[in-house]
Amino acid sequence: MRTISDRYQKLNYELHKQSADYGGHGDKNATAVVNVARNIGAKSILDYGCGKGRLGAAVRELAPDIDMREYDPSVPGKTKQPAPADLVVCCDVMEHVEPEYVDSVLAHLHAVTQRILMATFATTESTQTLADGRNAHLIVQPAEWWLEKIGVHFEPVEPPSYDATGFGLIAKPRPK
After folding, report:
1. By CB distance 3.0 to 4.6 Å, which of 29, 63, 64, 71 could disulfide with 82?
2. Nearest CA-CA partner of 88 in 144, 4, 176, 169
3. Residue 48: which of 84, 15, 21 has the closest Cα?
4. Domain with 133 in it: what CATH number?
């Protein structure tokens, strides 16, 4: 299942190289991720779209007993197809997905999520620009649009949390 075009993968790779900020804020979610992992008894966590890997580093420090994995198709060394994990974290990723691959990425997330998906979605433009001039958030849609898309594969376990730039969601995979 294809989840990214070769051209876009290269654009993201370049932006990751050029910008220290791009894909570098995952650690802000570390405590919340570890709390969810502990609450569900997770033995494994996958950071899907891990960027610079700061979430993984912070989680490994906070919870060295949990198997922390990373996947990002645009980061060398992190492109290997991931094994399923109890908790999958996908924060500030989906708005960067090419529109024609959104359904494939959501299906892939479903395939690798064993128990819980913890995700955030931006609903506003990014401050980053790709080398081809496009805004780094290729998809700027309201929460309702995202919730309809996500609902095909996941069921929220609590109401989404909203802020001025997007929303967060904790969901379980729908039966296959």
Report:
1. 71
2. 169
3. 84
4. 3.40.50.150
146 vs 7: CA distance, rounded Å: 25
DSSP 174: P
Q: Which residues lie below 8 Å from residue 64, measured CB to CB, with a gap of 6+?
A: none
Between strands 113-122 and 166-173, the pairing is: antiparallel
Residue in 29, 41, 17 with CA at minimum distance from that of residue 161:
29
Q: What is the pLDDT of residues 57-93, one digit of tens each?
A: 999 999 999 999 999 998 889 999 999 999 999 999 9
- Per DSSP, what are the bridge partners of residue 87? 45, 116
Total domain count, the chain: 1
CB 85 within 8 A of CB 114: yes
**pTM over cut 0.70:** yes
Instruction: Answer whether residue 30 shows pLDDT above 70.
Output: yes
Domain range for residue 18?
6-173
In a domain, 14, yes or no: yes
